[in-house]
């Protein structure tokens, strides 16, 4: 609005908006977007989960190390922009792992139930077979009386 009302020239207004920090932040956001596009954040997250496991303390240590390394060359805001996709990917991996674990436990329960039912059916069949063998071993007149 300053150039529109004649307060300042447009070149002076643009110079105020385009500072080194703003350009750095825009560049890091572009780098973060490219990291997301090529799924580098998922690779880093998977590597972190593989190294740390599902232990919250170890995951926090991995995040701290990752952020520390990025902070050596980038500003704090830029580092946050870079680490956020990694954090989201780690959370996604942990949620998927938990769902897989729940599915595996449900499948395990179903298998155990089916084995139990199968064993019960076998026991029942064995009892019937034993009864039939016992009846078949009886003399003819005892079979008729029974």
TrEMBL record:
<protein>
    <recommendedName>
        <fullName>Solute carrier family 13 member 1</fullName>
    </recommendedName>
</protein>
<keyword id="KW-0812">Transmembrane</keyword>
<keyword id="KW-0739">Sodium transport</keyword>
<keyword id="KW-1133">Transmembrane helix</keyword>
<dbReference type="GO" id="GO:0005886">
    <property type="term" value="C:plasma membrane"/>
</dbReference>
<feature type="transmembrane region" description="Helical">
    <location>
        <begin position="56"/>
        <end position="74"/>
    </location>
</feature>
<keyword id="KW-0406">Ion transport</keyword>
<dbReference type="GO" id="GO:0015370">
    <property type="term" value="F:solute:sodium symporter activity"/>
</dbReference>
<feature type="transmembrane region" description="Helical">
    <location>
        <begin position="17"/>
        <end position="35"/>
    </location>
</feature>
<keyword id="KW-0813">Transport</keyword>
<dbReference type="InterPro" id="IPR001898">
    <property type="entry name" value="SLC13A/DASS"/>
</dbReference>
<keyword id="KW-0915">Sodium</keyword>
<dbReference type="Pfam" id="PF00939">
    <property type="entry name" value="Na_sulph_symp"/>
</dbReference>
<comment type="similarity">
    <text>Belongs to the SLC13A/DASS transporter (TC 2.A.47) family. NADC subfamily.</text>
</comment>
<keyword id="KW-0472">Membrane</keyword>
